[in-house]
Amino acid sequence: MNRVVVVDDDEPNLKLYAAVVKRVLGEDAVAFENPLQALERLDDLRPALIVVDYQMPELDGLTFIRELRAKPAHAFTPVIMLTASPEPALCERALEAGATLFLQKPLALADLTAQLRHYAGAPASRVTYGEVIMPTDERDTILRLFRALQAHCKDLGTHAGRVRDLAVAIANEMQLPSEEIEAMHIATLVFDIGMLSVPDKVREMPSTLPTRWRSVVNAHVDAGAAILTGGRRPLLRAAETIARYHHERYDGTGYPDGLAGSMIPLAARIVAVADTYVALISERPHRVEFTPANAVAQIVGLSGSAFDPNVVAAFERLKDKPNNFRQTA
Ligand SMILES: [Fe+2]
């Protein structure tokens, strides 16, 4: 039985993925270099899992997944998109297209091993990579929460994706350790997950809210931390930390705990800048959006009061690197 279909125009990659399937599941994958041929054969093959590359000349992975989802027989077939592309917001676009999971190389191979077991059900006796289960599950958990956020409100999902892109760009500019940047890449997607606790009519009110409603909105940081609490590994703990502290202010006048300066976790200080910038340049029902230049000036004006000066300095340097700002502007 061939339960896994792999689609990649790069033959060495295709052989590698097929070898992983053979090793983990003990069976041959059905491999396609051409995604169009794969789409034609899927009704016959009825796979338990599809692994697809992103960049392919005939049809890219996003279009492949959309066409797959348009087929009733494959509306729920698990699909993993796997890519080394640094293209911004690709993860969100893949999930929007209908991908079950998005794996970014170079870490993807270990994750792929775990996911093959999960979706195609290898016998436990063959499993020898148990240590990768927990990180993969945590990433999966966060991505599923992100999808819940997107399902509840598309704008919240889009905002979170843009904030994540900018926060990661700032973290890179500050030369944070690669494992912290990797964690932020996933964890920041759910920084505002607590907004699920705020009624839509309140969330959509202007920022000059009456006090009684302001406290309802502010409570989203506690709600977010409560949703994410209890993680035993760094990724979920990072998500909880960012969700809880991204509205603290550098001068100690923020919420929920009034932390100041370096007492505020660095990832939360970075997300605070990214969240504010993306909010300022976004169209909102009750105000005209800022131009990117005016929004940068606003952020710089709050350096040392609302925001960490080192984070603001890194953020400012990004404007000389157009690719980083283009993601959010
Ligand atoms: Fe927030």
Descriptive overview:
This protein has 329 residues and is an alpha/beta fold. It has 2 domains: 4-128, 3-Layer(aba) Sandwich (Rossmann fold), CATH 3.40.50.2300; 139-326, Hypothetical protein af1432, CATH 1.10.3210.10. Helix content is 55%, strand content 6%. Strands 2-1-3-4-5 form a 5-stranded parallel β-sheet, with helices on both faces. Helix 4 links the parallel strand 4 and strand 5. Helix 8 crosses helix 12 (234-245) and helix 12 (234-245) packs across helix 13. The chain starts with a strand and ends with a helix. Residues 122-134 have low confidence and may be disordered. Fe (ii) ion (FE2) is lined by residues 192, 220, 246-247. Residues 192, 220, 246-247 line the site of fe (ii) ion (FE2).
Task: Outline the fold blueprint.
Blueprint lengths: L3 E4 L3 H15 L4 E3 L2 H11 L3 E5 L7 H9 L9 E5 L6 H8 L3 E4 L3 H13 L12 H20 L1 H20 L4 H10 L12 H4 L7 H8 L1 H9 L5 H12 L20 H16 L10 H10 L7 H10 L3 H5 L3
Parallel strand pairs: 1-2, 1-3, 3-4, 4-5
Helix pairs in contact: 1-5, 6-7, 7-8, 7-13, 7-15, 8-12, 11-12, 12-13, 13-14
The structure holds fe (ii) ion.
Fe (ii) ion binds next to loops.
